[in-house]
UniProtKB/TrEMBL annotation:
Pfam families: ADH_N, ADH_zinc_N. Keywords: NADP, Oxidoreductase. It comes from the Bacteria. It comes from Methylotenera mobilis (strain JLW8 / ATCC BAA-1282 / DSM 17540). This is Alcohol dehydrogenase zinc-binding domain protein.
Amino acid sequence: MSHAIKVHQVGGPEVLQWEPISVGAPAAGQVRLRQTAVGLNFIDVYHRTGLYPLPLPFIPGMEAAGVVEAVGNDVTHLKPGDRVAYASVIGAYAESRLIAAERLIKLPESIDDIRAAAMMLQGMTARYLIRDIYKVRAGDTILVHAAAGGVGLIVCQWAAALGATVIGTVSTEEKAALARANGCHHPIIYTCENFASRVLEITNGQKLPVIYDSVGKDTFMQSLDCLQPRGLMVLFGASSGPVPPLDLSVLAQKGSLMVTRPALATFIASRALLEENASDLFAAVASGKVNIHVNQTYALKDAAIAHRDLEARKTTGATVLTI
């Protein structure tokens, strides 16, 4: 009998319940997957609390790695024994599951399951942020909030490898050192100094073409003051809470600014897009341009503890739930 974390009512970490589940045979187009490692992401918290509502009850989690146990009819690109990973598919907090085969990506031998579970959602998010939403180029100066987080560390490394100057915000000196060691040229400890003022100092008043913000409420409005005319604000998360309603005329007043709220699912919606994104990520990791830092692991049954630590900002880099 397999087990999974289930949510029967939204709320704090205590609503994450470890329960037995039944996993049947795969239908046409499906795979039965024995999972080995599950990625932890802030979107899991949004689902658990109801900020991003899901029908109850549900199994949380959006990414994992594992081994194919059985394939349904019409599945030709996978076979039992294949190592695979996925992202942006709800239901990952489980020892085993059924999943659409077209959402699975075969893993290269060079990437182990722990790193795979840590990199699919965060790594493909970083990829679309700096290659699709805004093409970061050599000579750009960018700002990355939560620079010591999972996505932040990948964006810092990848953007620096592209020749950009990277400014990042962090909460502690330890996180500043981690960000600095991973491509962030100018870490700003926002608990000690005003990040907007510091950005103006670093850029000599020139401001920035793009800002990547997964923090939300605590950083959004000040970030607008850091953008050049026609600059782009990319809001892709809300770890501090949702951004309050915005009078769009503010964007005109601050220099015809642009704001976008993207989601990874849109950028890997088709099989072709998924393969392109994953291929670019695997290549960046294989080249050494991007290192995946799994700085915390917890047993899957202890997901509630992992959620508490994530919300308390005790974690850095990626966190993986092991099976």
